[in-house]
Design a protein that fits this description.
The protein is α+β, with helices and mostly antiparallel strands and 191 residues long. 21% of the residues lie in helices and 39% in strands.
C-alpha cells in the first residue's frame, strides 16, 4: 500500500486555524456515526463523519521496511479523533511499557500526524497507566498559548499496536465525546 493523504497538513491546519474543519459537525453526538472496518488489521471504529484514511510504509533504523502504519482521523468541534494501527513483526507486548510507548508515539505517530511535531514535544506532560493488556495515556502540551489535551488507549495483539485518542484544547475537551468514541472501537485481528 502506498501513502494516502496528508493528515499532518489537515490536523495542523485544523488546529492552527482554530478548528475550521471541525465546524462541519456542530454536535457529533446528535447524529449517527460512520463505522469503518479495516480489512487488514481488524480494527472497527466509528467516527462522526467519514474519516481521512492514510497508510504509511515504515522503515525502521538499520532495517528494510518492515512495518505499516494505518491511520484514521476525523475532525470534531475544536478537536480531532484519531485511530491507528502499526503492523510490524517488531511489535510485542513490551510496547505497552511506558518508555517504549512514549518512544513509539513520539517517533512514529507524531511526525506523521502533527504539522509541527516540535510543538507537540514542547512543555509536554505524558502520563501513562498500563497493565498487561491495555495502556491508557493522557498528554497535555502548549500550542500557540493554548493548552491541548489528548486522552487515549492502546493495546497490542498479533504484532500490531492499536491506539485511539481524542485531542482538543483543555477548555473545550468533551469527556462524553471521548467515551462515545472509545466505546465504538473493537479489535478483531484475523491473523
Amino acid at each position: 500500500m502506498k501513502t494516502r493523504g496528508i493528515v499532518s497538513l489537515v490536523l495542523g491546519m485544523s488546529f492552527y486555524l482554530g478548528g475550521v474543519m471541525a465546524q462541519q459537525v456542530t454536535d457529533p453526538l446528535s447524529h449517527p456515526w460512520v463505522k469503518i472496518a479495516d480489512p487488514v488489521t481488524g480494527l472497527e471504529a466509528s467516527f462522526p463523519q467519514s474519516p481521512i484514511e492514510m497508510t504509511y510504509d515504515l522503515p525502521f533504523t538499520n532495517t528494510p521496511p518492515t512495518g505499516q502504519l494505518h491511520l484514521y482521523s476525523s475532525p470534531v468541534p475544536h478537536g480531532v479523533l484519531v485511530s491507528g494501527i502499526l503492523v510490524s513483526s517488531t511489535v510485542t507486548a513490551d510496547w505497552l511499557q511506558e518508555k517504549n510507548f512514549k518512544n513509539f508515539f513520539n517517533s512514529i505517530v507524531v511526525p506523521r500526524l502533527f504539522y509541527y511535531p516540535k510543538v507537540f514535544k514542547q512543555n509536554q506532560s505524558f502520563q501513562v497507566q498500563s497493565n498487561k493488556d491495555l495502556l491508557t495515556f493522557d498528554v497535555t502540551y502548549q500550542d500557540h498559548q493554548t493548552t491541548k489535551q489528548m486522552n487515549g488507549k492502546a493495546l497490542v495483539k498479533n504484532h500490531m499496536i492499536y491506539f485511539a485518542f481524542y485531542l482538543a484544547s483543555q477548555q473545550t475537551f468533551d469527556p462524553q465525546l471521548l467515551d462515545y468514541f472509545m466505546q465504538s472501537i473493537h479489535v478483531n485481528p484475523s491473523k
